[in-house]
Amino acid sequence: MLSKDQIAQRIAQELQNGWYVNLGIGIPTLVANHIPDGVDVEFQSENGILGMGPFPFEGEEDADLINAGKQTITAMKGAVYFDSATSFAMIRGKHIQLTVLGAMEVAQNGDIANWKIPGRMVKGMGGAMDLVASADNIIVAMMHTNKKGASKLLKECSLPLTGVGCVTRVVTNMAFLEVKDGAFHLLERAPGVSIEEIQNATEGKLVVAGDIPEMQL
Amino acid sequence: MALNKVVNGPQEALEGVADGMTFMVGGFGLCGIPENAITEMVNRGITGLTCISNNAGVDDFGLGLLLQKKQIKKMISSYVGENDEFERQMLSGELEVDLIPQGSLAERCRAGGAGIPAFYTPAGYGTEIAEGKEVRDFNGKPHILESALHADFAFVKAWKGDTAGNLIFKATAKNFNPMMAMAGKITVAEVEELVPAGELDPNQIHTAGVFVQRIFKGSAYEKRIERVTTRPRV
User: Fold this and answer.
1) 3-class DSSP assignment, residue B147
2) Which residues in chain A come in under a pLDDT of 70?
3) pLDDT for res A1
4) Residue B29 — φ and ψ, nearest 5°?
5) What confidence category does residue B83 fall into, taking pLDDT thresholds of 50, 70 and 90?
6) Once rounded to an integer, what is the mean pLDDT over residues B183-209?
7) Largest CB tally within 10 Å, which of A78, A153, B98, B199?
8) B14 part of a folded domain
9) Does the pLDDT at position B21 exceed 80?
10) Which range of residues forms the domain containing residue A25?
């Protein structure tokens, strides 16, 4: 099984030179720690910065410089600040090449739910609905099962949707999967995890074609 | 001759606010919020407010201060996860809440200030926020119709401003402030530094004074940080 940091590490291997990337809150944030050597990317945070850098040194925090998770950050050389309308113009206008976000549930048709549990938890969708509705390249980073052990990769989402038919890839602590043609297609297994274990943890339709390699981290 | 928008402080700046009004309040989390205006709203005890703001502050700061005193009737926001009192009031039905996607919220404010009554966006299609909204396909993809937002007052916070109401924001404290400034019938800007017209470089101004009706130099900014995150020095 992968740790959350290893999930981020596997996703980081998908980064390509020259990409602008939006990272959601949680596991996705960790992707920035694992940029492969020789790959130049710029991170966008939807509250209004391109060229987001690492956390500041202690004592150098700036209340006016935060990311979408409200954490203090720094700006890289060449960074730019902009207002929220411009930020989402970048997102809806497809100027951002990769979006990585977390989810509570993903369905085999690419639906995603991550903003609300009726009657219990309502935090709001933030920028997630804009991101998933517009981005062509969406990777979901999440645990394969919830805290009760139930699968988060489902035939149909049970929670209110964030977007429909939009998730293309999912990286969990157990597997790397592609979502297409109404099914989860197993691409890679986490080290030491068997196909049977992945099958048992996946409620939605799982397609296993040929040999499934282990992830290389 | 540049117009003079200067008022002498939050009391004068909020003249005319009343129960039941709709306010836009700039900021993202606690970053770039109009602290002085919020304090003045609390002091005035106005109630039944509709607040359009990306977030609702935290329990004891920002718009959370107004929630504590039950001054807000309805919130229009995109993310409210940092405020337990908000969640409690919403789940119990005391507080009306309209949650909208962040990009749609920004664009609806912008549209309100720009004279665009409505626009189509893909965000939220197929979700519960699309219920009751017109759907139309463009380039083979469904979009929903979202309408412009307006406010009786917009309260924004800038880094620097001049007496003519021109504004410059700092870093990510810009966020929703420029669009909200455009969409207020009366826009009140509070700034950390207020200079005479002519001293700001016109090339560097983010919000034109035409959008600002009142401006004052704010005081005692706490600028609370919601999540202090640092890395070790090596």
Assistant:
1) strand
2) none
3) 94
4) 60, -130
5) confident
6) 98
7) A153
8) yes
9) yes
10) 4-207
Distance from CA of A188 to the nearest CA of B (A): 31
Flag whether the ipTM exceeds 0.95. yes
Give catalytic status of residue A42 as yes or no.
no
Q: B residues 150-179 near A, CB within 8 Å?
A: 159, 169-179
CA angle A110–A116–A120, rounded 5-degree value: 140
> Could you tell me which of A88, A131, A93 has the C-alpha nearest to residue A112?
A131
Distance CA A74, CA B122 (A): 32
Query: B36-63: per-residue pLDDT in tens?
Result: 999 999 999 999 999 999 999 999 999 9
Residue B120 has pLDDT above 80, yes or no: yes
Residue span of the structural domain in which B18 resides: 10-117+150-217
pLDDT above 80 (res B124): yes
In contact, A173 and A144? CB cutoff 8 Å: yes
> Is A55 in Cβ contact with B123 (below 8 Å)?
no
Helix intervals (H) in B75-174: 84-91, 102-114
Q: Which residues of A26-48 are buried (b: 16+ CB within 10 A; e: fewer)?
A: bbbbbbbebeeeeeebbbbbbbb
Domain of residue A90, CATH code: 3.40.1080.10
Q: Which run of H or E residues covers position A112?
A: strand A112-113
